[in-house]
């Protein structure tokens, strides 16, 4: 096992245990929504975003327990986005992480409430004093996550994605896809990294370095995701276009082709590593994770 694989596994174990505690089951009718929130969150997942929070926070001397709660709050937002993205009104998916999607396991109304509940719980955790003794720091963390997850970020990106269905396909070019993905998936990665700097009350230059690193790494992640989609499609269906492209959506791969997309993902991963030039060996796992984003198999 590489150092990164071991560190990812150790971090995921801590994140899973803390998420389990933060989403404790309750009795009564409302227990069903908690059960669905737990289902949407605790059924696997790589826990990349909390790992990034922990690693970025480590650069700025932040105690791990604080970073862990921020990472768990972020993972709740990520999980809510997946539960809602799978709904019939969005992607209408039956499987997530190899298991029935939340609305298939429960029902549509419960899955909507589970996503809503996860979002609210995330902000409740962030506002709690286990995260940081200084309420101004907690306020900054809350405001930054609201921006990353909301209309200026992930939700806005999802809207741009939905609107693309009504656009002339010829107008969907690389700048359009880049912006869409920076909002839809990139902003949560940016939050993961800048949250470490906010927790450490680091200077603005560090915050910008964390954002620049995450921006390049997040795009590399997304291109790799498109490549995995095509490779999975080649393996299982033999069409070799990927689920999104087969559904008529433009992707980095459909616009650039497989080889060029792979080169661009590698270039962005190295650019992400370059953004960490000012940091010592404590940033080595962040460097490794940028390279892992483009070599991962799931
Ligand atoms: C519904 C508000 C709302 C937003 C949905 C992020 C998003 C917006 C939808 C996810 C759709 C999707 C599958 C995008 C591909 C990239 C991505 C975010 C993959 C899932 O992230 P991983 O690989 O997943 O970190 P795990 O399962 O490891 O947590």
TrEMBL record:
Pfam families the UniProt entry points to: polyprenyl_synt
Keywords: Isoprene biosynthesis, Magnesium, Metal-binding, Transferase
GO cellular component assignments: cytoplasm
Family annotation (PROSITE patterns): POLYPRENYL_SYNTHASE_1, POLYPRENYL_SYNTHASE_2
GO function terms (MF aspect): metal ion binding; prenyltransferase activity
Xref: CDD domains: Trans_IPPS_HT
Source organism superkingdom: Bacteria
Cofactor(s) of this protein: Mg(2+)
Gene3D superfamilies hit by this protein: Farnesyl Diphosphate Synthase
Single GO BP term: terpenoid biosynthetic process
Family listed: Belongs to the FPP/GGPP synthase family.
Protein name: Farnesyl diphosphate synthase
């Amino acid at each position: 096992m590489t150092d990164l694989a071991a560190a990812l596994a150790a971090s995921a174990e801590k994140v899973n245990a803390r998420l389990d505690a933060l989403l404790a089951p309750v009795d009564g009718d409302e227990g069903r929504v908690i059960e669905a929130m737990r289902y949407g969150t605790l059924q696997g997942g790589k826990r990349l975003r909390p790992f990034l929070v922990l690693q970025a926070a480590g650069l700025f001397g932040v105690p791990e327990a604080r970073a862990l709660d921020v990472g768990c709050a972020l993972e709740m937002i990520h999980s809510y986005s997946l539960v809602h993205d799978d709904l019939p009104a969005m992607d209408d998916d039956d499987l997530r992480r190899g298991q029935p999607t939340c609305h298939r396991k429960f029902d549509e109304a419960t899955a909507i409430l589970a996503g809503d509940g996860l979002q609210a719980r995330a902000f409740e955790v962030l506002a709690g004093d286990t995260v940081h003794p200084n309420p101004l720091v907690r306020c900054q963390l809350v405001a930054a996550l609201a921006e990353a997850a909301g209309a200026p970020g992930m939700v806005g990106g999802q809207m741009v994605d939905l609107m693309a269905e009504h656009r002339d396909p010829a107008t969907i070019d690389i700048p359009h896809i880049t912006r869409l993905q920076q909002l839809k998936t990139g902003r949560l990665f940016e939050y993961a990294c800048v949250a470490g700097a906010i927790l450490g009350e680091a200077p603005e230059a560090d915050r910008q370095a964390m954002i620049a690193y995450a921006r390049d790494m997040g795009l590399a992640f997304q291109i790799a995701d498109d490549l995995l989609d095509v490779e999975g499609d080649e393996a299982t269906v033999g069409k070799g276009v990927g689920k999104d492209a087969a559904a008529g959506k433009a992707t980095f791969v459909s616009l650039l082709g497989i080889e060029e997309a792979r080169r661009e993902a590698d270039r962005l991963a190295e650019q992400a590593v370059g953004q960490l030039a000012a940091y010592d060996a404590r940033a080595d796992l962040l460097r490794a994770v940028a390279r892992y984003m483009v070599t991962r198999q799931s």
